[in-house]
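The records we work with from here on pair a chain with its fold. Taken together, the tokens spell out the fold as the letters spell out the chain. The record below shows the convention in full.
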Amino acid sequence: METQPALQQLLADPGFLLSRVGAAVRAGFKEVLAGWGVRPLQYVILLILDAGRGASQQELCAAAGIDSGNMVELLDGLETLEYAARARDPRDRRRYVVTITERGRSALEELRQAIAAYNSGFLSPLTEPERQVLASSLGKLYATTAEGRPPGPRGRPPGHDGDGPAVS
């Protein structure tokens, strides 16, 4: 049985290549985050919290595209690590406000550096101009996905299933 032509065909298929490279990048990204006890969606939450002065759980759900049922578990984990804290909103006792802690900011800074190092290593076969073309091309493709489209009227991308970003 001759497998060479079939293999050559796969290696010329952009969808196959994106799928395999995506799986490798996802695995490496998760491995980097695991060093801090953080899952990909928790990393997203930390990034959102770091950009503001706190957010309600519902605001975090909308900003990160995370289902509210999953948010409680994700925040529980961040609180256990002491990366985030929840407190009652003094203006509305029914609502909790989530903030990033100093320990969370410190961990996030380390995570950003570790992810940058991982990305640099993974992309090392490419020149800087090739990296820029790749990022631009991937951005165009991402913009065609449900997750990458602008939010609809309820704050979610059209057709979004509520499972959150692809890296879970």
